[in-house]
Amino acid sequence: MKRTALLLFCCLLQAAFSFAQQKPNIVIILSDDHAFQAISAYGSKVAHTPNIDRIAQQGVIFNRGYVTNSICGPSRAVILTGKYSHKNGFKDNDNSRFEGSQDSFAKQLQQNGYQTAWVGKWHLGTKPQGFDFWQILPGQGNYYNPDFIMMDSSKERREGYATNLIEDIAEDWLDQRDSSRPFCLVIGHKATHRAWEPDTADLNLYDNVQFPLPHNFYDNYANRPAATGQDMSIEKTMTLDYDLKMPGKNSRGNTARMNAAQKARYNAYYDSVAADFSRRDLSGNALTEWKYQRYMRDYLACAASLDRNIGRTLDYLDQHGLRDNTIVIYLSDQGFYLGEHGWFDKRFMYEESFRTPMMMRYPGVIKPGSQSDAMVMNLDIAPTLLEAAGAAIPPAMQGQSILPVLKKGKGREAMYYHYYENGTHSVSPHFGVRTERYKLIRFYERSDAWELYDLKKDPREVNNLFGRKGYEKITAKLKAELTSLIRRYEDTQAETLL
Ligand code: SGN
Ligand code: CA
């Protein structure tokens, strides 16, 4: 009897030991402002992202991945904490400060035996906590020869292109980690953030492509005061000098950081674009459309380096025998407008910025080539990681693990969104709800208006149905749904605005 008990105990111990060994490693690749419309796996006919597509092909692609607050710092804070902005305190880039002492998936993973690291763009103001190693860009950082903030607070300038350098730092950390323990590494890329400065190797990659204008490129914003009031249009906001590198006061600001070889290649390229531009003597719509073409070329050239470096991450995992026991998640901090509504930038609860590219490879758990239409959010990343690591999900986390969602094929019925920033790009604060078919948005502060969309009939969101005859019932239903989500997530400020 005693011997049987001992044997059983030994078996259990062994099982527990091998379970501990089997905790999956985690790599999260987090890009900045990378639109799903710019990814071939999402159906882009013009963009080539073979390495991002690899993650989709070998795992699951989420066709309905969304963010709770479409802007950089806030999205990162949501990913870290698994909580909405009003709970984690980081509501906007302008006025918020991330309180690093709060709980996060990184701290929970550390407590469960993981080594954790964050490299690259961080953009939360305060120093990272919960990471055994970090090396981050100050604020937005620079594309060329960027500075990095080291763990002792000193700054180090690195020669090269940000996307390559961030991957180098990530690989260096992987090389020297303790390989007897599982790891969680976040690779935070600066690409494809404004002002879209490509690597010199990629400058002319898309020169021969003519980009089709999105159907609502010439949106007139009728019946939508917040969309009318924004300052993020290609026509009016996007500048020829700063954004598109044509001659002018703010032309090619970052060449100041470049070395002679970088500057020579960069200037040679944009000088020839500028000469052609000057010959064309454009105005009106022709000028706006020229800007759009240039914007797309620079943006996708930046994305090419991003994709190539994601390929390096995947190759590293393959070459070091880590592929089968490593979860890889790719997502952007939010989506981005590539000319839809005539815009660049993000912020609005309209699909292009509310949605974000999201995909996940998890060998042995997720069937390669899976597609998911479940409504999932960046809020769900933290609980998903904790479940995969076999760790308890703290009740204060508001997201839900995606793993059971993948098994059932069904996510939430409705999603809650709240955007706060009231500054750069003049987008009115707003909150709202999206269901399978409808979206109800309440703008406040800068604009005071409601919007209602039937996404089935109007996927481009140009026809605001709020207040229209015949929509009373659905409006009441959505308001009830919105109220219930606001109460569930305890967004007391929004509750006063219903
Ligand atoms: C900067 C950009 C904006 C951008 C915000 C937020 N202007 O202010 O266009 O919306 O960052 O971006 S720039 O002149 O500095 O390029 S975020 O990704 O950090 O949220
Ligand atoms: Ca961003």
Structure, explained:
The longest helix is centred in the middle third of the chain and has 36 residues, at 284-319. The chain has one domain (21-197, 293-495): Alkaline Phosphatase, subunit A, CATH 3.40.720.10. Strands 5-4-8-1-9-10-2-11 form an 8-stranded mixed beta sheet, sandwiched between helices. The chain has a 4-stranded antiparallel beta sheet with strand order 13-14-15-16, with helices on one face. A two-stranded parallel ribbon has the order 3-12. With 498 residues, the chain is an alpha/beta fold. It contains 14 helices and 16 strands. A hairpin with a 5-residue loop joins strand 6 and strand 7. It is globular and about 65 Å long. Helix 2 crosses helix 9 (284-319) and helix 5 (105-111) packs parallel to helix 11. Mean pLDDT is 95; it is low at 10-20. Helices cover 34% and strands 15% of the residues. The structure holds 2-deoxy-6-O-sulfo-2-(sulfoamino)-alpha-D-glucopyranose and calcium ion.
